[in-house]
Amino acid sequence: MFKYNCLNPISTYGLKEFDDNYEKVEEVNDAEGILVRSAVMHEMEFSDNLLCVARAGAGVNNIPLDKCAEKGIVVFNTPGANANGVKELVFAGMLYAARDIVGGIEWCLDNQDDVNIAKTAEKQKKNYAGTEIKGKKLGVIGLGAIGALVANAAIHMGMEVYGYDPYISINAAWSLNRQVKHITDVNDIYRECDYITIHVPLLDSTKKMISAEAISLMKPTAVVLNFARDLLVDEEAMVDALSKGKVGKYVSDFPNTTTVGAKGCIVTPHLGASTEESEDNCAKMAVLEMRDYLENGNIKNSVNYPAVDMGVCHQAGRIAIFHKNIANMITQFTANFGDLGINITDMMNKSRGDVAYTMMDVEEEVTDAIINKLSSIEGVFRVRKVK
User: Fold this and answer.
1) Left if phi > 0, otherwise alpha if psi is -120 to 50, otherwise beta: which for 375?
2) pLDDT tens digits, one per residue of 211-235
3) Would you tell me how many other CB atoms lie within 10 Å of the CB of residue 309?
């Protein structure tokens, strides 16, 4: 019986993927798996029971990844599960910026008592007319699950699309419409595009990547859309540029005291992935990732350990070892099994940065003696009996 805890409310659509071998517990220290959305975990002390954390969403800045890696706790996220919800809101943001829909709605509410409102509206509507997005240039920075959907949809909306992503995956590249123009210098997007949307993770290297310098390259009519993370944009510089008419609009899904109410800012209350479908998809993916890991030791969509998949174990035992990514580790593991006369029938080892993950199927039951011998090897974080 596996035990799990939900730090945030998790969609029942996803929780239904747990079978009778799983029990939901209220005490987090009793759990082998944690499901989380936005709860901040940096100050938490993790029990030795905890084996994995599954984030029902893409961003993981609320989880201490290095701390988890050093304790052999696998952290998953759910890339792509909420991509369509975010994509649709990006286009809503573009349309809000292109045509003053919000201003028009507010005018109607302000004049609701006017018995001649229909006639008056015909005179006023030119103030909210705006432009169309068809034929405009859209720059997409980051061509992952969301960025690729935005780029492809924009092509079908008649936009001229420029894509920038120096780390684009093969799968993402294959999914892109051939009409998306690949850009190798992000500054070309800043200079040329009418609309610029950013879809990259928040890292030290991407923090405030849309800087004052980047903003200075943009057209005075440019619209910047941020449905990824607020810290990707130097918002103080953005608000200053908007106040001076050096850029057109800033559309953000992250309300804060810098942007809300500022001239040229259109801010929504973090609605990007907050659709019923997105929450369901994220919850289901998170649960399935957790189950495959707890039951089989397989890792998919982890943000702190490499992907490893050995399917279902058909041998007597399976063991998983979390360790430093240094020389001679595999030799020591196999030597220990050899000393005990245990045959290894299958093995997989993968690394990610400073950490590595090794999984082995063996012809005999995994005993405490084996676990203790492997755990005593310098550089090993954790040894787990999967089967």
Assistant:
1) alpha
2) 999 999 999 999 999 999 999 999 9
3) 13
